[in-house]
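Lay summary. Proteins are chains of building blocks that fold into shapes, and those shapes determine what they do. In this project we predict the shape from the chain. Here is one chain we studied, written as its sequence of building blocks.
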Amino acid sequence: MSTSAFPPATARLPSGPRRSPAVALVRGALAAVAALLAVVLAVASVVLTWFSVSIVDEDAFVATADGMAASEEFRGQLADAAVEDIMASDEVSRYLGDGSGDAWYSGLLGAARDGAETVLRGAVSSAVESEDFAAVWHETAVETHRENLGEAPSDVLVLDAGPLYETVDARIGGLLGVDLGLGDQGRLIDLEEPGASGQGEGAAFLHDAARLATAVPAFAIGAVVLTLAAAWLMPRHRALAPAGVLAAAGIAVWAVMSLGAGALTRWADDVGGTGGVVLGRFTEAVTADVPTWALTSLGVGLGAAVLLIIADVLRGSRRGPAEVF
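And here is the predicted shape, written in a compact code that computers can read:
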């Protein structure tokens, strides 16, 4: 019987070398690690970019602070806090005592302190309501930024209230002919207590973040390289690696920035005095654009991920059902 009646069976030859399950498992694990590191670097890039353009940059910092000066509520809170701080200062205590004691003249000193506080409140209020306050506050913001982020930054977060106190001192001198010396050699108000190392936690965090912000380009490049490496390590559907990185990074940026802004605001609320008033209002102002950054990152990440997944499905459908799943 001739075998020509039966056509030879044809077999589909593999298009490439088969990988063992162990090799596939290792490649999958490496892809997952690369994708995770890419997400971390991507999140760091976005968050540190916001930090750099909003806080580290002196012009942006000062512009945010300048906007605070237009608020009548802020000026009123600042005046009240400044009066309390000045009345408790060594300069005032040197003339009128600290309000304590039971000596026979304590009542006279108390009355004198009350009168001085009335005069001081009027001087401070006129200072913050004057046309010159915007310029004084601008100088305050510039000096504060340089004290915290300049070439020789402070070991603790500080507010340089020297320009404001100099203005108040000049007004008191005009009214009473007394120079309290409130603005002598600057007037730094500590916003936190130093730790065991002599450095405040807030200052340490600020300085570390400022140094890391200079590495944002390297972080961004690293995120791209690791994403491509994860895609190359994927045996199939390589578009899923960048899709996963983009989606995870978008969600992570939204969470980190939203939670971080809330934590920063709560921390500022715990600081009292003039520094607390300024810090609280500044954190509100500087984090006002955080929702925009967070939601934009979330939308871009999820949107790009969806587009990559759709493109991968369409690409697989052209090769047959086996390539789609």
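What the prediction tells us: The radius of gyration is 31 Å.
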